[in-house]
Specification:
By secondary structure, this protein is α+β, with helices and mostly antiparallel strands. It folds into 2 domains: about 120 residues, Sandwich (Jelly Rolls); about 130 residues, Sandwich (Jelly Rolls). It is built from 8 helices and 14 strands. The strands form 3 sheets. Strands 9, 10, 11, 12, 13 and 14 form a 6-stranded antiparallel sheet that branches. A 4-stranded antiparallel sheet has the order 1-8-3-6. The structure holds ligand 1OR. Ligand 1OR binds next to β4, β5, α3 and α5. Keywords: cAMP, cAMP-binding, Kinase, Nucleotide-binding, Phosphoprotein, Repeat, Transferase.
Length: about 325
């Protein structure tokens, strides 16, 4: 049927995990779409003149299809595809076996493919202003890379090299743009300016914030609704997109103490995730509260670079609680 790519393409990738973990979120769960593969909105970012489009179909065995499904299962970029989009993506993917040390993408090169890692490991190098390349990231199974050049019609932003014999699935540029780009760039745009203003995230690279955007889900709580219940197991991390939240701590005698509230740009819910402890306080919406949340796995993976700051900040909680009790 379609343009079968030659076999010496150089795929690339970018990764992410969204996780089918338990969630703290309320009745309209943030993951309401999961598993249903309902259609995404049709705001057209992609050059998707569907009528003229010839689908890429690379014949594959059931076993190969299964392997692709497993590889993309936890990848945020493949969320929210409808059944047809999901099938089209799998049809279009090409298996690429690579050897240790093989270069998959070269910084400055032209973007042709987007890559998903089935097995193996990859390192990412960036050279800034002609300086020697520095390792900035690595990928393992489930990861994906090479979306940037395809999304922005830009040269490859980094070099990606296999660090073991590996198996990749490559998706051609046209299929990537037609199916995966719309949702991805919509989300990155939606959260971009907000994430730039979240104090805890300022030290991150823009690309790290993009990846957080891929993983975020928004949820809304009405006035008085409990977001976090003291004593519960914690599954999510929260950033306040708009509105305010009140914070209450119940002490051993059952007396409730009000702690300083939270506002736009503030975060909460990290403590239970960092320490694997029950939720330390109650957090409630004060008026309408909109939050962006990350599941635990995504939190660990994407906020790794700021964990020390989160931990340091949490040292203040004890002082704040002590002061509140004395009032
Ligand atoms: P691409 O099409 O530009 C290289 O081809 C790919 O490496 C790129 O898409 C991303 O998928 C992936 N900056 C830019 N690209 C990165 C980065 C990155 N990490 C992975 N890729 N970082 C910023 C470095 C200043 C690393 C952030 C952790």
């Amino acid at each position: 049927m379609a343009s079968t790519p030659t076999t010496d393409y150089f795929p690339d990738s970018e990764e992410e995990l969204y996780d089918d973990e338990p969630s703290d979120l309320p009745s309209i769960p943030i993951n309401y779409n999961r598993g249903r593969r309902t259609s995404v909105s049709a705001e057209s970012m992609a050059p998707s003149q569907d009528k003229d489009y010839v689908k890429v179909v690379i014949p594959k065995t059931q076993e190969q299809r299964k392997r692709i499904e497993n590889s993309i299962e936890n990848n945020f970029l493949f969320k929210n595809l409808d059944e047809e989009q999901y099938k089209d993506v799998i049809d279009a993917m090409v298996e690429k076996r690579v050897s240790n040390h093989e270069q998959i993408i070269r910084q400055g090169g032209i973007g042709d493919f987007f890559y998903v890692v089935e097995t193996g490991t990859f390192d990412v190098y960036v050279s800034k202003n002609g300086a020697p390349p520095e390792k900035v990231h690595s990928y393992g199974p489930g990861g994906s890379f090479g979306e940037l050049a395809l999304m922005y019609n830009a040269p490859r932003a980094a070099t990606v090299v296999a660090t073991s014999d590996s198996v990749l699935w490559a998706l051609d540029r046209v299929t990537f743009r037609r199916i995966l780009m719309e949702n991805t760039s919509r989300k990155r745009k939606m959260y971009e300016s907000f994430l730039e203003e979240v104090p805890i995230l300022v030290s991150l690279e823009p690309y790290e914030r993009h990846k957080i955007a891929d993983a975020l889900e928004s949820a809304v709580y009405e006035d008085g609704q409990l977001v976090i219940k003291q004593g519960d197991i914690g599954n999510n991390f929260f950033l306040i997109e708009s509105g305010e939240a009140s914070v209450m701590k119940i002490d051993e005698e059952g007396i409730e103490h009000e702690l300083p509230g939270l506002k736009k740009g503030d975060y909460f819910g990290e403590l239970a995730l960092l320490n694997n402890k029950p939720r330390a306080v109650n957090i409630k919406a004060k008026g309408r509260l909109k939050v962006a949340t990350l599941g635990k796995k995504a939190f660990v993976r994407l906020l790794g670079p700021v964990v020390d700051i989160l931990k340091r900040n949490s040292d203040n909680y004890e002082t704040i609680t002590r002061n509140a009790r004395q009032q």
